[in-house]
Amino acid sequence: MKIEMGTDFPAYFEAAYPEEFDLFSHFEVGAGIPSVLFAITTWKENGQPNVCLHAWSSFHGDPQGFFAVMGNLYMHTHTFANIKRDQVFGINFLPLCYYDALVKTIHHNEMETDELMVAGLHFEKARTIHAPMIEEAFLQMECTLKDIQDLSGARQAAMVIGEVVHLAVSDEYATGYAPRYGKDGFMLLVPAPQDLVTGKPQQSAIATVHIEKYD
């Protein structure tokens, strides 16, 4: 037996917070699919660094190009405006120990705020693009804007695609699996999986990767 749902909002679903289902599809919490967490970095129009903690993305390509496909980037944000204006952005992967620091940038993101300073993180100059990078990141990607698509047409969130033009990996993460996969490696967002029987909400979770098998 499977519990099924369609495009109509399930009337028995309870929101975890008042605006939850104004921001997210019920499929988001119905599926509860994890995705990697990272920090997007851009310059604000006034020259202050912007940091955006983000998930809902994939990374893939072919010999002709490698792409960061970032879903659900809200169109009212500094990050979206900065990417549209400058046509570039940085992607920074940090371990779980920096999660709380990155969350501070969600609550302190005014135009005049240096969001790296708010998080207690350090600026590193990008090699190929005009964007700030995060020194503490174990993996950095420098991206040029390839495409923006408002898939739903609601002018709320967009899919932003960047082409990766430069990659940097910290020495201690450059020899294979450890420590890239584990508590000191990639963070993943587990979006609050709704109880599909009762409709009760649950908390989101932050996970790391545990290798079970080699292929």
From TrEMBL:
One GO MF term on file is: oxidoreductase activity, acting on the CH-NH group of donors, NAD or NADP as acceptor
Q: Which residues form a coiled coil?
A: none
Instruction: Outline the extent of the Flavin reductase like domain.
Output: 30-188
Cited Pfam families:
Flavin_Reduct
Q: Which UniProt keywords apply?
A: Flavoprotein
Residue spans crossing the bilayer: none
Superkingdom as given in the UniProt entry: Bacteria
Cofactor(s) needed by this chain: FMN
Please report which protein family the annotation says this sequence is part of.
Belongs to the flavoredoxin family.
Quote the protein name from its UniProt record.
Flavin reductase
At the highest ranks, the source species' classification is:
Bacteria, Bacillati, Bacillota, Clostridia, Eubacteriales
